[in-house]
Amino acid sequence: MNYLILWFLIVLQRVVELFFARRNERWMKKRGAKVIDENLYTWMVRTHVVFLLAILFEAYTRHQFTAPLQESLILLFVLLQAGRVWCIFSLGRFWNTKIVVLPGSKQVKRGPYKWISHPNYIVVGLEFLFIPLLFHAYICACLFPILHLALMSIRIPMEEKTLKALTKD
């Protein structure tokens, strides 16, 4: 598969997810949901945009578009996308890219959320490592997982605190 096609498919997937998130946010807000900390969300969006552009830039400047795609990394990428979709569908209308919590709702405990609290962030962290490797963007593969961990060190405690305050178990 051509690198640019793969890159555009990844971007398209992210854009489609943002439409789902916006739809879910509107649905939840109609029912009294609250959005928590838009500032952190802005930084997360910026990180993802820079991530995608940096991969393209690094691969282009290092002339890596002609290097062969590695089947094992493609397989891992497909598995990560399956994990991402599983997380999104498990949360259903409650899935969002923002922290949006509907007071009085129960915390979702199905799919991967049955076993761990934030499986989507694990998937995203692994994507920040392995997607750049697909494109031979090794600087991105080193830098962006660290940025993701830094953001998650703020985001996850914020989500946990919000979920405890606004939902019933």
From TrEMBL:
It comes from the Bacteria. One of its GO terms (biological process) is methylation. Signal peptide: none annotated. InterPro entries: ICMT_MeTrfase (IPR007269). It is a multi-pass membrane protein. Pfam families: ICMT. It is found in: Membrane. One of its GO terms (molecular function) is protein C-terminal S-isoprenylcysteine carboxyl O-methyltransferase activity. Transmembrane segments: none annotated. One of its GO terms (cellular component) is membrane. Its main location: membrane. Keywords: Membrane, Methyltransferase, Transferase, Transmembrane, Transmembrane helix. This is Methyltransferase.
